[in-house]
Design brief:
about 55 residues; mainly alpha; 2 helices; YtxH domain-containing protein
């Protein structure tokens, strides 16, 4: 029975770690200003256009 407890604890730790990673990425994403987002999207579009030529 002891290994079940360890497996459950490892699962909970994995879920918590995933939540931390997602929250950190979301915070980083929201830190951009609308103008920065537009600029980045335009750059990505230009890069994609160059790849299709």
């Amino acid at each position: 029975m002891r290994w079940w407890k360890m497996l459950g604890l490892a699962g909970i730790m994995g879920v918590a770690a995933t939540g931390v990673v997602i929250a950190r990425a979301e915070r980083r994403r929201r830190a951009y200003t609308p103008e920065e987002i537009r600029t980045r999207l335009r750059e990505r579009l230009e890069d994609a256009d160059h790849l299709t030529e």
